[in-house]
Write a structure and sequence with these properties.
GO terms for molecular function: 3-methyl-2-oxobutanoate hydroxymethyltransferase activity; magnesium ion binding; methyltransferase activity. By secondary structure, this protein is an alpha/beta fold. The protein is 40% helix and 14% strand. Helix 5 crosses helix 6.
Length: 263
Amino acid sequence: MNKKMTITSIQKTKGVRPLVMITAYDALFAKLFEPSSDMILVGDSLNMSFAGKNDTLSATMEQMLYHTNAVCNGAKNSFVVCDMPFGTYTNKEDALRNAIRVFQKTSADCVKIEGGADKAYIVEHLTSNGIAVCGHIGLLPQSVRSEGGYKVKGKSEKEKLKLIEDAKAIEKAGAFCMVIEGVKTDVATAIAKCVEVPVIGIGAGADVDGQVLVFSDMLGLFEEFTPKFVKKYMDGATLVKEAIKNYADEVSKREFPKEEHTY
């Protein structure tokens, strides 16, 4: 996947092959992820994975700009998605002003907005002003406090119909794709079939149009907890701890540096 994806090529994957999206927050990891991913998400999840916060709500516009720039520098041929942090799109004027900052100060290809039909007017305002938007429906991490926790969606017929309404509203407003998080598999599958844009799942089963994971979860670096939907592709925390211990042991025994490591 060396050729950079575009909005058009992303949309053309619908019904052809699943999209691969992964989070990244710096140049180093972005460069490592670039060869195997279609899209890199600079998620406000960085505030939990790397800032030690309990949720994503305290992420700022300045943080997102800084980390998005870092990712763009590391993965110049990647399609980069910048999360709009909590409180930066409460109305269409603020949303446009902050999204313009993302486009002017970084090389991000689009912004991501959480919300369904209630945020469609904001998505429409952004897209009509030249801002590409990835939607985000289902479980909304930025609403965790108002909802009293992280709750799986689509458990009732009413929730299913609401999610379908959300997806169609976001699509109609101009979003070129959307993330669907924490939704019952059958409902997520139905939603992916009822819209023409790609639906990228996280905790939403395999029958959507792509998958996204937080890289520190999938690499086993984040030890506090592992969501049910995460598969650990390596035990990163153990590997890092072992490497650091080996380094510390060699330093304490004066086994490092050896002659080949000195000038």
